[in-house]
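Step 1: inspect the first sequence and its tokens.
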Amino acid sequence: MKYRDFLTLHILHHASEEPVTGSFMMEELGRHGYHVSPGTIYPLLHALEKESLLKSHWEVRGGRRVRVYEITKIGRKTLDEGRERLKELCTELLGE
């Protein structure tokens, strides 16, 4: 799996739990050791939307317009498949 794949799975996971924003994902990924800049996260979110893994809409939060991303059916399927691949990799690497 590539670095982008891990970021994608992480984004899809959180978007499956609740709608997310780019700033939330930068903070969340930072808590897990990823140092992701706006120049990385926003193009990735847009690419995931273009691939139909996410859909977005605008909301006003704290007086500011923010783009909010939600997972799609295709995104859920991709997340499920990614989880299976990750399980297989962990089993192979950790022997469990």
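Step 2: inspect the second sequence and its tokens, then contrast the two.
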Amino acid sequence: PKADSTRLILNSKAQDTVLDLAATRGSVEDLELEDVLKVGYKGIKCVESGGPEPGVGCAGRGVITSINFLEENGAYNDVDYVSYDVLGDVVCGGFAMPIRENKAQEIYIVMSGEMMALYAANNIARGILKYAAGGSVRLGGLICNERQTDRELDLAEALAAKLNSKLIHFVPRDNIVQHAELRKMTVIQYAPDSQQAAEYRTLAQRIHDNSGKGTIPTPITM
């Protein structure tokens, strides 16, 4: 909904969103797939759902509208992976739509060792548990985006164990990420031989190898 997930893959400013284009044209039915789907680095197909103005309506509606539009127009044909970059806000049901409608198979929670990030990760696990019991979606694991807090790796591994899951990868903090962002690139494109690029390749391989090994989470109760 923030429309900032694909810009580095497209080497551009934020792309036009499904909801913005629908508002301009009149409705979603007035859109064509090529209006909203743009192809970026290495042939990655990109779509941004968008959302309403802050304080107006439920941003999760954009997720629902977009997925339905993409399904009806064959966007999911001939792709190896489908990734949803969804806000970690399980209060609004729309954000849980890929989980609720069995559109997603595995959920990976991106977190850090900061207290509120750990709290949010546990909350998301509670949301996954609600839908995992009656469906096929599973928690794939945690991905820790290092913030360089004390004992961060230990905390991430401990939370993963508490959630009946595992830490898929600990991504170290590196300023090369900001250098790439300033040039509207991903790290893989900007510095393919860097250590940070190697970290992301390792992460991708671990997600690939983890297919079908997800678990039903056991959130911590307060």
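Step 3: confirm your contrast with the notes below.
The chain has a mean pLDDT of 91. Residues 115-132 form the longest helix (18 residues).
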